[in-house]
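Example 4.3 (complexes with small molecules)
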Amino acid sequence: MVLTIDQPSAAPDAASPAEKPSLAGLGRDGLRAALAEAGVPEKQLRMRVNQLYSWLYVRGVADFEAMTDVAKELRAELGRRYTLARPQIVNEQISVDGTRKWLLRLPSLGRGKAPEIETVYIPEAARGTLCISSQVGCTLNCTFCHTGTQRLVRNLTAQEIVGQILLARDRIGDWQGAELPDDGHLLPTTDRKITNIVLMGMGEPLYNFDNVKAAMELAADGEALSVSKRRITLSTSGIVPEIARWGAETGTSLAISLHAVRDELRDELVPINRKYPIAELLEACRNYPVLSNARRITFEYVMLKGVNDSLAEARELVRLLAGIPAKINLIPFNPWPGAPYECSDWEQIERFAEVVNKAGYASPVRTPRGRDIYAACGQLRSESVKQRASERVAAADAASSGNGA
Ligand code: SAH
Ligand code: SF4
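Answer. The structure with S-adenosyl-L-homocysteine bound is encoded below.
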């Protein structure tokens, strides 16, 4: 059973630029500017920023009045000027396996309709992974990826990227002293319920470098969200020039969407390969600044029936990765309406995995999670797109009946 909670769209103005701005998700610089604007004297700014920063990102408060060590008048002034609102939830779904997916509406920033993104939480017994989006849509057109069929609408701001984490923590009670949801769905037994963050939602994170970097700095900051850098993983389709820079500037873990072992096929599946072919990509991996046996790069390989799943390709994969501290994730292809591929047969995935295992890789086959709510890799946005398609049909029906047809 899928549980869907439609949030009343009580805050349609959350998408309107006329709304009071939210401070939730801002870094120290942004908070400093907002406090200065609210009249906090220069010599108090540092102390006030620290107070706010801690209330926002250690305690997760969503109300200025809860900030008991901030002077009453200042709390009132902040409340007059700002909010602590998170991105607006349009829809929340919980899968039978405990996976939670949120459809979020963002401000249009003056460019047409308010865009929507998705954030997914995947609980396991001993860890909880939050999969976040970095862009609305994607400029790249990987042929097996549903996000890739949508044009890029815009980059997310750093505040919107952090906002996804705040909102997820709100919904699963992952703040100091907060209550866990009592809906009976799986949560990890760990102290923190979000132990890992993966940039594997919508978009190519290295094409929104600065905002993703600022957001991950806040996520990793021990005085803010405190998710260790090694438990933050950026997944990229292979933007070679940005890989070294990302590693040097942030030191997070890295995942590469490889999916093919020959350029000819990868050119087709992951078209950015025409610009940055496999040999260059693997060279960038070998040189990744934070690479060791304890910090391996994850290579993602989506299993497409009759396309990239032969045993010869499994052997070639192992040969290609020799010498790189690597993990291999075989991902069963998650279908979406109109997709030009099928998932490999289970026996073939197992045979493929056996070749990889024999070469010394643990290579877990990643069990698709949240498939019933379209939350699995590469399926993001599909449900909302379907809804829009049906809206279009309804609109067309209404129009044609209006025409007396
Ligand atoms: N743009 C980045 C991150 C987002 S995609 C990237 O491409 O790495 C996250 C992962 O999901 C990538 O490995 C992507 O290749 C994979 N993926 C996309 N569509 C998929 C599908 N339909 N089934 C399984 N995995 C898919
Ligand atoms: Fe974009 Fe990644 Fe999808 Fe490719 S797989 S289209 S890079 S989101």
